[in-house]
Amino acid sequence: MKTKTTILAILQISLTFINLQSQVLKKAPELSMDLIIQGPDIHDVTLNKCSGKVIILEFWATWCKPCISNIQHLNELQSKLSDKNVCFISITNESEEKINSFIKLKKISGWVASDTDKSMFKAYNIIGLPTTIVINPNGFIELITTPDQLSLELIQSIIDGTYIPVYKNGQNKPELGSFGPGDDPAYTSFIKGGEPIPYQHIIRPSVNPSISNFFWYGTRTQDSSVGITLIDANLNQIYACAYNQASEYRIINSSSLNTQNKWDLIFSRSDHSSLEMAWKEIGVNLNAIFNVKIRFIELEKKVTTVTLQYDSFIIKESQIDWNNPNSSTYTGIDEILNIIETNSGKILIFDNPDHLELYIDTYEISNVLWNSNTPASVVENWIISKGFIFKSEIRKVTFLSIEN
Asked: Is 38 left (phi over 0), alpha (psi -120 to 50) or beta?
């Protein structure tokens, strides 16, 4: 089975979402990993033997870029809480060999466990990665979130028994949970608990609107099925994704659309579909729903051209062994430039005929690359240090025009 998952978006937006209220302050399922790769004997890793401790379960994978970007954060928390009754357990369903290869490259301070039969993933209803589950000293699930939302103060409050969930807009349900590409978080949270759906295509006002310009975007292809989820995106952002534009700044004449409102888009199909076919179907439906037509036009604009001065750090995708866990930190140059354009608003043009094939190891900046709070200049300066030149000039640029 060949699986390829892309989590873009502004990409370490590990969006938290409303999950089943009953999962919180419910007795935690038993810890049933099949192998402890780093830590005590497996017989010592049970809820009973960890009683009185706060247990932080980090569900992750070596291929998951947001997971990797949070390892340093979790290591720092573990270091600061080393004298407290706190256990950090990182759980993946990958093989012992793959995990050992990874942790030789990237240190994980806590315990590391393998759950190859996914019994823990199923018991804790894990839908997307990364997902963090915090169990209180009494063995109850206190919090379901993502690693970037953990803080020293939050964990200390759970140790002290003073933690109070954050509520918004007078609701009586905390924002919790996780999901993956092709999942509708409202559906997986409240109804089925993550069972796959043969076909769904949903476009709706966001059930979790925010004032941020960032959104969650994921695509997944697996054999002949496809999944796409966008959460809390404005229409320019959705059109940019649907029509393969680098960012919302390449969408023009969209005044007929209310681009201030936020939308959710969920698409999944299992009948021999592809991402190209999926986006085509989504585009047709978007145009029908909002009663618009689209066309591509060329305009002269001030842009930033990007050229590759030397290729010492560059590798072609055909040379990457994606089965090697050490390859998980390679990122496409186009993807990095899209992040810079999205965060800066500058139109970037990469002058290289092989641009789709070029990758670079982003291990050095993995903790900031996928973080929405990272200034674009940080990523731009890093890529410049790897042999790229940025230059302002006037160029013809293709824009997507949305017209009545």
From this structure: beta
> Cβ contacts of residue 135 below 8 Å, gap of 6+?
28, 47, 54, 55, 56, 57, 141, 142
DSSP state, 39?
Answer: S
Of the listed ranges 14-23, 126-135, 203-212, 373-382, the least confidently predicted one is 14-23
Q: Determine the Cα–Cα distance for residues 31 and 23; give it in Å rounded to an integer.
A: 16
DSSP string, 356-384: GGEEEE-GGGHHHHT-TTS-HHHHHHHHH
Is the pLDDT reported for residue 173 higher than 70?
no
pLDDT over threshold 70, residue 17: no
Distance CA 29, CA 46 (A): 10
Distance CA 232, CA 209 (A): 6
pTM for this one?
A: 0.65
Residue pair 313/384 in contact by the 8 Å Cβ criterion: no
Q: CB 187: neighbour CB atoms within 10 A?
A: 17
Helix runs in 82-201, H state only: 96-105, 119-123, 152-160, 185-187
Q: Delimit the domains of the chain by residue range.
A: 18-160, 185-291, 300-401
Q: Which residue has the tokens 């004997």?
A: 41
Fold of 18-160: Glutaredoxin (3.40.30)
Structure tokens belonging to residue 161: 């028994």
Contacts of 179 (CB under 8 A, 6+ apart): 17, 127, 128, 185, 188, 189, 194, 229
Closest CA to 244 of 213, 280, 214, 268: 280
> Closest by alpha carbon to 52, among 139, 121, 166, 127?
139
How open is the CA angle 217-223-228, to the nearest 5 degrees?
15
